[in-house]
Amino acid sequence: DKKPPQHIDSIAGHYLASAALLGERTAMLHSALASENATADFLAEDFTPFHQRSLYQSLRNNTEHTYQQLRKSLPMLPDKVRSLANEVLHRESDLLALLSTLKSKLFSGKRIRCHGDLHLGQILFTGNDFTFLDFEGEPARSIGERKLKRSPLKDVVGMLRSFDYAAKYTERQPFFRVEDSEKLKNFLDEWSFWTQKEFLRSYLIHIEKADIIPKTHEECRTLTGILLIEKVMYEICYELNNRPDWVNIPLAGLLDTIS
């Protein structure tokens, strides 16, 4: 409930308002997808021990694959990025401990057919509102995987990571003076934090009546952390294969998640 500091609110207030509106619209999207009038393919379903163990095994396998790829790539990474990568590698046990919660605790909330690949690039701003695009899910997944019902927090996590990427992308641009780099980094870090916070705050307020996310703060936080790991593992593999000099972004994001 803490409000943004005045210097952020005065400079980036319109971004914060947009983040809040986007959180509300995302909640409306999920409420519509989970409607009781939906066909069988779209009806919301409870979490089950079988589903959670299946998700755990999938995430564990994916994590092991990502860690193998990261170890192989270490010699090719710049020194600063290699330092981040080594820190991530040393935190593997912490990461797996968080994932193991899927085996020991049955989550409340529902699983739905959500967007599946939600980020800022999948949204159009109309001038005073937002429109969602491209509901086919993550291109790297099979059609069967894309049809699986997931926690709507999967889409929320995608948006949170996208705000972070937007800030880090801006930080990398060459049109800022070197002497302003530290001030710019500090501002962008705060911009990323508060836009994410506003998006999440608004989403949680407007999704409450739908009764599809976990009922307690602790459950929401734990499941969000697990889904953040899933998302960041995807980002690490993507960056290593396509933009190795960008891999510091998801590496730093992963350390924030398990810190």
What does this protein look like?
With 259 residues, this protein is mainly α. Helices cover 64% and strands 4% of the residues. The strands form 2 sheets. A two-stranded antiparallel ribbon has the order 1-2. Strands 3-4 form a two-stranded antiparallel ribbon. α1 packs parallel to α8 (181-207) and α9 (217-242) runs antiparallel to α10. It is globular. The two termini are 22 Å apart. 33% of the residues are buried. The mean pLDDT is 91.
The number of distinct β-strands equals 4
**Strand percentage:** under 5%
Q: What is the terminal-to-terminal distance?
A: 22 Å
Low-confidence stretches: none
Topology pattern, helix = H, strand = E: HEHHHHEEEHHHHH
Main sheet: which strands, in order across? Answer: 1-2
Helix content: 55-70%
Report the major sheet: 2 strands, antiparallel
The Rg value, from CA coordinates, equals 19 Å
| Strand-pairing-aware structural class | mainly alpha
Average pLDDT for all residues: 91
Backbone shape: globular
Question: If helices are DSSP runs of H or I spanning 4 or more residues, what is the number of helices?
Answer: 10
